[in-house]
Every structure is written in structure tokens, then in C-alpha cells.
Amino acid sequence: MYDSCPDPKLSERPGFRLYRLSQTVRASYATHLAPLGLGPVEAWILMLMRDGAARQPGELAKALGMDPGGVTRMIKRMAASGLVRRSRRGDDLRSVHLEMAPKAQDLTLKIAAAVERAEREFVEGMAFQDATLLDRLLSERLERTARP
After folding, report:
1. Could you say which DSSP state residue 12 is in?
2. For residue 38, what pLDDT is reported?
3. What share of the chain in percent tops pLDDT 70?
4. Cα angle value 36/38/43 (rounded, 5°)
5. How many CA atoms lie within 13 A of 51 on its CB side?
6. What 3-state class would DSSP assign to 81?
7. CB–CB of 32/117 below 8 Å?
């Protein structure tokens, strides 16, 4: 890709395009989640918990690619609003176990519908094969870059 143009314009770089695209997708998520009173990160936390992908703040931070401190602050706000319950497990006072409150469990169906609308909006106009290929390529790239 870069052989023919050793110094492409910023707007032609895949990383910049992904950055811009992520802003667009996140804005779409925010728009579709706003009626539920949630932002994208709050919704993603609940969905990761629903899916069993994470039960501790550190696991959520890793899954989201976020700073653990930021996730911890978000969880505190979510606990204060009755979406998440925090508890200590065992003798380790630093270990926090998370579970969704009943209010959040009911909300996950609505979150899933909002996410579906946002993602349909994202792939609108794309051929099914192209959308599938994009999903596969993004998954592979994420998996590869997540390795230590």
C-alpha cells in the first residue's frame, strides 16, 4: 500500500480512516442509546456483563481497551444509578465482583435493539459480503493487536 506513496496524506492512512470511522460509529451508538439514558460505554459494559465476558472492572477495562481507572469511575456511577451491583469476593478487599441489577437486565434487550439499529445504519448500502468481510477483517485485526 505504501510502496507507491512513501508519505501519504493523513486522510489516506488506514489508521486515520479507522479513527474517523470510529467517531462516526460511536456517535451513531450514542444517538440510538440516548433514549435509554445511556452512553455507549455504559451500554457496552452492561452487554459485556450480560454476555459473561467480564465480571470485574479490570476485565471490563481490558475488553473495552480503556484505562481501568476510567472504567472504575463509570462503574461507580452505574452502581449509584442502580444498574450495577458491586461486591467483594473472598479476603482480597481490592477484588470487586460485578453483577447487573435487575433494572439493567431488563434494559439489555433495549440496548441490543439500539445496537442493532446503529449497526444496520453503519452497513447500510454495503453488500452483505462486504459487510461480512469488513467484520472478519476487523475481528482479525483486533485479535492480532490484542496479543501481548
Report:
1. G
2. 95
3. 91
4. 105
5. 13
6. coil
7. yes
Domain of residue 92: give its range: 10-115
Which cell numbers in the block locate residue 82? 442502580
Residue 56's CB: how many other CB atoms inside 10 A? 17
In whole angstroms, how large is the CA radius of gyration of the chain?
Answer: 18
Q: What is the CATH number of the domain that holds 40?
A: 1.10.10.10
- Cβ-Cβ contacts under 8 Å for 113 (sequence gap 6 or more): none
The one-letter amino acid at 142: L
Q: What is the Cβ-side half-sphere exposure of residue 24, based on CA atoms within 13 angstroms?
A: 10
50 in Cβ contact with 14 (< 8 Å): no
Cα dist. 118→25, 28, 57, 95, 137 in Å? Answer: 8, 6, 26, 35, 20
Cell numbers that stand for 147 in this block? 496479543
Instruction: Establish if 140 belongs to a structural domain.
Output: no
Flag whether pLDDT at 86 surpasses 70: yes
What value does the mean pLDDT of the chain take?
A: 89
pLDDT at residue 28 greater than cutoff 70: yes
- Judge whether 23 and 17 are in contact, CB under 8 Å: no
Q: Cα dihedral angle (84, 81, 27, 52), rounded to 10 degrees?
A: 10
